[in-house]
Amino acid sequence: MNPAYDFTDQVAFVTGAGSGMGLATARAFAESGAAVALTDVNAEALDAAAKDLTDAGYQVLTLTCDVSDEDQVAAAVDRTVATFGRLDMAFNNAGIQIPPCDAADESIEAFDRVNAVNLRGVWACMKHQLRHMRAQGSGAIVNCSSLGGLVGIPGRASYHATKHGVIGLTKSAALEYAPRNIRINAVCPGTIDTPMVSDMIAKGELDRERAIADLPINRLGTADEIAAAVLWLCSPGASFVVGVALPVDGGYVAR
């Protein structure tokens, strides 16, 4: 059983909220009393997610947003604050995977695309969230890195570079904003049973049984388990936690 949090009268902002870890986290914030802004580049998935939450009686705002476009990010964050009056928590989760590739053969287009979403997108979200939180004098941000931000894997150099970069952004910004009552941390998911991982398995880019065998816990993680970590990092229970890159990976990086 996960701890219960009371985020009544608080506002959360979640990117990549149309499915997977983003949707699970948005739902967890809503269940804990927060108003939630859901953003995703996939408008259809976003609408379906929002309907589920509004039908359950939760207060949500949907914003179609490509995080690789800073103007769209700025507009989404500003709209959230204009609608709800404040911004207390954010989970910068939106990310993409690219097919594994020999580092000598990878195209500049693939490198630029994965960086635009996974690293620049997190930078843009955090930048515009901080502008509001700085004026407000409080806030908590969780950036989504990966076990790929903590280790290397052959064939994944560009993807892992983005996730290492997210940790660098997180640590530096955390030191800058901790004195201003804003906590910034990162979560590092392992192999999680999400639509993105299912798509990788279907394309032959990931072997499910081998992935499970690599995890000491002997199973894939769930989106709800990532949501639980994010909510803790945003909660008063983590009030002295600043600048961490928290592995939630079934023991992968502990081996």
UniProtKB/TrEMBL annotation:
> Which of the seven top EC classes does this enzyme belong to?
oxidoreductase
Q: Give the source's domain of life in one word.
A: Bacteria
- Tell me the GO molecular function terms: oxidoreductase activity
The protein's matches in SUPFAM superfamilies, at most eight in alphabetical order, are given as: NAD(P)-binding Rossmann-fold domains
What are the EC numbers? 1.1.1.-
Q: Which UniProt keywords apply?
A: Oxidoreductase
CDD domains from the entry?
SDR_c (cd05233)
Q: Which family does it belong to?
A: Belongs to the short-chain dehydrogenases/reductases (SDR) family.
- This protein is called SDR family NAD(P)-dependent oxidoreductase
Can you name the source organism?
Answer: Nonomuraea purpurea
Q: What is the lineage of its organism?
A: Bacteria, Bacillati, Actinomycetota, Actinomycetes, Streptosporangiales
